[in-house]
């Protein structure tokens, strides 16, 4: 587990170093092909040097014989269309930014990530993860990191980092629910169910309905996410400490969103999603859980009326995770 983690950290640091070189390429390509979230997919062929990756699919080009390529392409399109149709947002930067994806990154790489400019997907080792393009909510999670960077720019550590993670889970799950036309009480509220532990059934990487209960097995132990403030996990702001537990404490705001969505009922993207999206756009980069809770309460009042059922549901949801507005 720690070996896998170290390999993941190494490859992510390598990626960060390559960012400068890649940026030059991207700006030239961007000039040649401006547009409304036009998609480009590259194949890393198990390498971890992004500039060496082969261009394998473009917006107007034919499908690939490689389903990882096609899944990334379709997932980007679905997420782009969700942001456009539900929130009238034009791609990651709301200015039609190109959507660049890299598949088959590294050898048995157990992760996917947004590196500040593009989305990158590993193949997984087949035990912890399968090919990370396999879950649409994971693709939408990574693209949403770009949206967050271009809106609140939530700093990726401690509570603001856990909020950043939670935004990616919230909109990742909403994209899946939107594509399946599911109401809040019909959705599974799971993240990564299609890619997490291919050999183990009926689990997921995270659960927004029941943080701490997404998985429990001999290989990877029990899901460590808390679902309320009294269980908040204090970790150092280091790579080993997951930047202050950003992927752990995200369970708290995830649960608040889930409770808001099921409390209001209907399609979660229509009311709860609108409140969260408008709150993301006006939040600051150092927002705490308390700050964000206050903002959602205020936005619910502006959008649906002070004292409305929608606003009361937001208040009760945060109260259940032990945040008092
Ligand atoms: N899969 C992780 C995420 O998107 C990778 C990372 O950025 N830490 O949160
Ligand atoms: Zn993330
Ligand atoms: Ca599984």
From TrEMBL:
Its main location: secreted. It is found in: Secreted. The keyword Cell wall biogenesis/degradation does not apply. Keywords: Hydrolase, Metal-binding, Metalloprotease, Protease, Secreted, Zinc. Residues 75-149 form the Peptidase M4 domain. One of its GO terms (molecular function) is metallopeptidase activity. Residues 152-323 form the Peptidase M4 C-terminal domain. The keyword Protease applies. Its cofactor is Zn(2+). Its EC number is 3.4.24.-. Belongs to the peptidase M4 family. Extracellular zinc metalloprotease. This is Neutral metalloproteinase. The lineage of its organism: Bacteria, Bacillati, Actinomycetota, Actinomycetes, Kitasatosporales. The chain holds residues 24 to 348 of 404 of the full protein.
């Amino acid at each position: 587990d720690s070996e896998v983690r170290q390999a993941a950290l190494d490859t992510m640091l390598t990626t960060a170093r390559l960012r400068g070189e890649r940026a030059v390429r991207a700006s030239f390509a961007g000039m040649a092909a401006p547009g409304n979230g036009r998609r480009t997919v590259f194949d890393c062929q198990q390498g971890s040097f992004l500039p060496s990756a082969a261009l394998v699919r473009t917006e107007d080009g034919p499908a690939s014989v490689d389903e990882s390529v096609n899944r990334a392409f379709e997932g980007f399109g679905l997420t782009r269309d969700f942001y456009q149709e539900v929130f009238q947002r034009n791609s990651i930067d709301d200015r039609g930014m190109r959507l660049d994806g890299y598949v088959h990154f590294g050898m048995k790489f157990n992760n996917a990530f947004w590196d500040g400019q593009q989305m990158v997907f590993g193949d997984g080792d087949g035990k912890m993860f399968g090919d990370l393009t396999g879950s649409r909510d994971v693709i939408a999670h990574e693209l949403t990191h770009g949206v967050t960077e271009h809106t609140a720019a939530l700093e990726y550590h401690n509570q603001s980092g856990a909020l950043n993670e939670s935004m990616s889970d919230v909109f990742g799950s909403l994209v899946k629910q939107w594509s399946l036309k599911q109401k809040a009480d019909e959705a599974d509220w799971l993240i990564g169910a299609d890619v997490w532990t291919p050999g183990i059934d009926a689990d997921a990487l995270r659960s927004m309905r029941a943080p701490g209960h997404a998985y429990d097995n001999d290989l990877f132990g029990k899901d460590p996410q808390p679902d309320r403030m009294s269980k908040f996990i204090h970790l150092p702001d280091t790579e080993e400490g997951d930047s202050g537990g950003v992927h752990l404490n995200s369970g708290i705001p995830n649960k608040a969103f889930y409770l808001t969505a099921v409390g209001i009922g209907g399609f979660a993207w229509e009311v709860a999603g609108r409140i969260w999206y408008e709150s993301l756009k006006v939040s600051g980069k150092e927002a705490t859980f308390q700050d964000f809770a206050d903002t959602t309460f205020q936005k619910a009042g502006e959008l649906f009326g002070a004292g409305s059922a929608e606003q009361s549901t937001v208040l009760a949801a945060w109260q259940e995770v032990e945040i008092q507005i």
